[in-house]
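Problem: given the chain below (224 residues), write out its structure.
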Amino acid sequence: MMNEKQDFTQGNILTKLVRFMFPILGALVLQAMYSAVDLMIVGRFGTTAGISGVSTGSSIMSLVTFTLAALTTGVTVRIGFYLGQRKEERIGPLLGGAICFFFVLGLILTVVLLIFARPLAVLMQTPEAALDLTVTYVRICGGGFIFVVFYNFISSIFRGLGDSKLPLLFVTIACVVNIAGDLILVAGLHMNVAGAAIATIAAQAVSVVLSLLIIRKKELPFTL
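Solution.
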């Protein structure tokens, strides 16, 4: 069950909202740092065209990711609604349906990113020298996009339960993994844009695995 700090139906609501808001803000800032870290390390150890490839590719991925994150907000709101009504038994069916929805959506977005990577890069007016590198970045990230989908979905569950600190922890660990991956793959193995994309997806995968392990051990007010 929720503890008193996570219960927004009683006590000082403003204080709880402020405490709830800052971890979300921190998570958004750290998510934005993904592309900044990729650009910095590719710029230092990669090629000039690689900088453009990462910049354009991460812009495409950010557009899709933030649209997805907006959709997962519906899960957050609905969980909070049921908790406020003390109808925790409705959360399980809600999440069951949401898992199916986001899994199918993740597959669709994966196919779209793999097939339309080049048209999207052309639409973004990518320089000719960086076009292939941009396509490589988008396709690698698209191939592992299911991890991005479920990172955002799982984070929406915790936020719906009134816990915004765990999603911040997940994204912090992901950032560390991303930096380490960039240094190994880009600086060490000279994989340029491909290395940056692999590191990004690997970081998201670590976040998903970590969050699933925590869900299994955490006492939750619902069952799936």
